[in-house]
Design brief:
Elements (H helix, E strand, L loop, with lengths): L1 H47 L3 E3 L9 E4 L2 H12 L17 H13 L3 E10 L2 E3 L2 E3 L1 E15 L2 E4 L5 E10 L3 E15 L2 E18 L2 E17 L1
Amino acid sequence: MKKSLLVAVASFSVLSFASTQSVNAQELITQEEEVSTAEQELREIQQKYNIEEVDINKIPEEHIIKFDSVEDLEVFIKELQLVESEEVVNPSNFSTISQDQFVNSLAAAAATKYYDDSAKMDWYSPFTGWGATSLLQFKRITFDYKYYYAGKVKRFKADSITNIVSEIYGVSAWTWTQSGKGKSKISNTPSASSATIETDGFYTLGVSLNGFTIGAKLPGTIKRTYDLS
C-alpha cells in the first residue's frame, strides 16, 4: 500500500513538473513572439520618422522611456517633434520706389552706422507623459547680430545673424544636439523689428516597446522669435 502511494505521489510530481515546464515554455514562446512583433513595429516607426539607431548602452537608464503600444509611441514622437507655437510677426509691406529713391536709399545705407550685439532667449518648456520626467525642462537659443537705427527704431541688419546655438537644460528625459548652423528670418514693421530663429537637431533617448529596446536619435526643431527693442 505504501509502495503504491509512493508511486502515485512520484507520478503526480513528475506530471506537475512536466506541466509547469510546459507552461513556462509556452510563456517564453509568447514573450519571444511579443518582442519579435514589437521589434517589427518599432522598425517600421523608425523608417517612418527617420529615426537613427544608436548604442543603447550609451543611454542612461533614466532616459529610457517604455511604451505599451505603437500608437502611444507615435503620439509621443509627434508631440516631441512639435515646434512650439510662435506669435506671428507680419513683415512690412513692400512698395515700388523710383530710381532716384533707390539711389538715395543706397547712399543712406552706405552711411548707416551698425552696432554689434548678442541675444539670449530662455523659456520654460515642460513635457509630461509616458514616464518622461521633463517637468523642469528649459530651452535656450543664443545668437550674435548687427543692428542700426531707423529714426528711433532699432532694426536688424540684413543677413547679420550668426553663431546660432540652441540647447535644452534642466531636468529632461533626453538630450538635444544641434545639427547645422541654424537659420533666421528678419521681419520689420514701421515700429518694430524681430527675427525668428530656427535650429534643427535631434533628441537622443532610449525607446522600449513591449520588451524590445533601442537607442534612438529623433529629428526635431527648436524655434523662437526675438523682438528687438
